[in-house]
Chloride channel protein
Amino acid sequence: MTLVVGIGAGLIGIAVDLALQFLEHAAFGYSEGSLLEGASQAPPWRRLAALVSAGVLGAVGWWALRKWAARVISVEQASKGTRMPWFTTVANAVLQIGIVGLGASIGREAAPRELGALFAEKVARAAGLAPREVGILVACGAGAGLAAVYNVPFGGALFAVEVLLANVSFAVLLPAFATSAIAAGIARLVVPTTPMYALPPLGLTPQLFVWSVLAGPVIGLGAAAFTRATQWASATRPKKAGILWAMPLLFAGVGAVAMVLPEVVGNGKAAAQTAFSATAPLALVGLLLVAKAATTLATIKAGAAGGTLTPSVAIGAMLGIALGTVVNAVAPGTSVAAFAFVGAAAFLASTMKAPMTGLILASEFTGTGPEMLVPAMLATAGALGVVYFLERTRLSDIP
């Protein structure tokens, strides 16, 4: 069953990647190059039209799904034994792929995770496995789906172990590593094998180490604020028929921003690459930081389902540059891209509340060597310390 789940997740990753490429090329009218290049070359009206189309598609689709279909079961619930309804899960994933492909500002990783978990659950139950084994394979299927669509085998395995199962044992590590490795290996037939983000050469400097210690808590404050904002946006999203007007309207607002800043379209890859290239002016980085956070929150507030993994990478990278520029003004010599990497890793680890997964995903996304993990670990420790302190303080205020 481990082999079957790995193969299935790999094929799911291929299908998701091909569907997204087709939609992105059709939406923005380009045939080659990255989404950032395609969106930048498209006329502003086309970006607006793509986002409005995404809003209409998502509004009608999720209104109908939430009105007549079974309730969506999350991967976390499924790994604990709750059955995933196949039609609702597939339809929910297809809608996510549809709006992201049309430029919606939200992560694309939730769809392959849910489809991988659904496939794993169905084959595991059909094979008559014990409930605990079904739960393990569901988590592994979700991690393998993530590994396949982003070519992050180690990060996908750690996601299953650290985030979903919170259990490090032979019974968990073996299928998690095997399924993610198999899935990523199969998906490489279509999914690019190069790192998602291209970075200039990085180097360790004494300033970077000192900055990582000092910036970590600030990044943690930003991550905590973003997490609470996404929770608020999700909790206050329109109910029932309200989504039919709210989503097209809010998506049109995102499209209006994209007319001026094409970097905000999609799951965050375009904005993150702008930051990691280390060539954008600080004013543009600051503007994109606010715009990407706002458009992602607006997308969630509109009622869309999806993830915040790649938006968190983009926001963290830009926050790292903004904070790092202060250090370079006083003690120059550190690559701006190094600040971006450390900021992205610490912010992602803090929003996920998974330090190992966040650090490894940032490393696999960028193809960065292990030496950069040292300052990233320092920043992550400070960031997570602030996140947990704020959570404990918030809980202690509840009567």
Observations:
- DSSP finds 17 helices and no strands in the chain.
- The two ends are 47 Å apart (CA to CA).
- The mean pLDDT is 94.
